[in-house]
Write the structure tokens for this entry.
Amino acid sequence: MKHLVSITLASVLLVGYPILAVAQTSDRPDSSAILKAFSTPVVVDGNPVWATVLTDASVDALWHGTPAADNLRTVAAGGHTVIYVMGVAVKRFTFPVRYTIEQDGHSFSGTGTNVSHFDGVAIPEGETILGLVEFDGKVALDRPFTLTLGGGSATVAIDPAAVSRWGQIAPPKDVFASHSKK
């Protein structure tokens, strides 16, 4: 089942490549503020990547209006921390497939889903890196944690106000519920 979810996510992420909404409306929060709050730069072998913690708000900021949004919410709401990784190789390197999170003395390992050059093979300079990491536990977003991607690590400390405002993750509403028998 986990492999099926990984394959489905990889295909949805590839087709529903993240897009940021150009125009903001008053009823939608500012995508750039959300991504700034939930994203952290990590340098892996001299190559910068961005790691974004997936919440309802960050999924909307990245994939608003695409089929990927509901699929990612379903996975992220499953009781695990899920991180989206994106970047561009500034030099040729191999992205090691080791992912961990440490918080309050607990360590969680992650399983990566390759979308583009996130599978442990050599990445040519200038190529896009895209992947999703699902960890085997859930961190408390209101407390700092250390994220390790391959050989690079960073401390993730999300502003408590951002966690309170945008840190929720819930499975998507059943679109068929309104069509149930009366």
Observations:
- The longest strand covers residues 106-116.
- The chain has five helices and ten strands.
- Strands lie at 39-44, 47-53, 82-88, 93-94, 99-103, 106-116, 122-123, 128-135, 145-149, 152-156.
